[in-house]
Design brief:
mainly beta, two-stranded antiparallel ribbon, 2 domains
Length: 85
């Protein structure tokens, strides 16, 4: 279900254009969170996933409003210079 404004129009957001996307339509449509799926991923970049996620399982036992990025496990931070000496 797409988010709609007061006039009933679909709310769209504009994504950044890159040298690779050219004139391709990069707009996005925000959706209402109604279902929960557990995913695995390898890397975050800012507030988004760096690479595509892999669906692990549906979570019918969870409400979408109760799921946030703050629940992610944080990787252990380390300084490469200390590891390599």
């Amino acid at each position: 279900m797409a988010l709609r404004d007061d006039a009933g129009e679909t709310v769209r957001g504009e994504r950044e254009r890159t040298r690779f996307s050219g004139s391709r339509d990069r707009s996005v449509v925000s959706l209402d969170p109604v279902a929960v799926v557990e995913v695995t991923y390898d890397q975050m970049e800012g507030a988004g996933f760096r690479h595509p996620v892999q669906v692990h399982r549906w979570r019918p036992d969870r409400e979408a409003a109760s799921c946030t990025f703050e629940q992610r496990e944080r990787p252990v931070a380390y300084y490469l210079s200390r590891v390599l000496g």
